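Q: Methylamine utilization protein MauD, please. Structure only.
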Amino acid sequence: MTFLIASNILLWVAVLGLVVVMLGLMRQVGLLHERSSPMGAMITDHGPDIGDKAPEFELPDYFGRSARIGGASTDGRPTLLMFTAPTCPVCDKLFPIIKSIARAEKIGVVMISDGAPEEHARFLETHDLGQIRYVVSAEIGMAFQVGKIPYGVLLDSDGVIRAKGLTNTREHLESLLEADKTGFASLQQFMTSRKKNAA
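A: Structure for Methylamine utilization protein MauD:
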C-alpha cells in the first residue's frame, strides 16, 4: 500500500513537471513568433533587382486575351506575378491562397506558367481563376531569371519591382506584400540589417 501511494505521488510530480516544461516551451514559441515577423521571401534568382523597372511584355494569355506584364498598370494597382507550373504540387496548394490574398489586398495577379498544353488544360479544368490572368510563357521566366517555383514578384503601379522571392507558404506570399511597410524587401536584406545593428 505504501508503495502504491509513493508511486502515485511520483507520477503526479512528473505530470506537474511536464506541465511546467510545456508552459515554458509555449512561452518560448510565442517569443520566437513575435521576433520573426513577416519579411521578404528568400531571393534565389539573379534577374532584375528590387527597385528596377520590370521587363515589359505584351502577349496573349492562355485564353487569347491581350495581357501586359510590366509597365504602369492601367488600374493603378500593384501586380503580383506568380511563376508556377501546372504540375507543381506546392503551386496547386497555394492557388486558393493567392486568390484570397488578391481579393483581400486588392492587387492584380498574373500567373505565369510553362509546360505542355495538356497539363495547362488539366490544371484550368480544376481551378477557377476568377480575376487572375493565366499566361503561358517561358520567355518571361527567363527575363526574370526564375530558377525555382513557386516564385513571386511584386510590382508597384508603375511597374517597379518592390519585392520578390520563393513563395512556398502563405507567410512567404504575405511577406512580399509587407515589403514596403517593413522596408525589408528580402530575407537577405533583413539578415544584413540585423548583423549591422548587432555590430
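A: Brief note, in case it's useful. Residues 71 and 159 are 4 Å apart (CA to CA).
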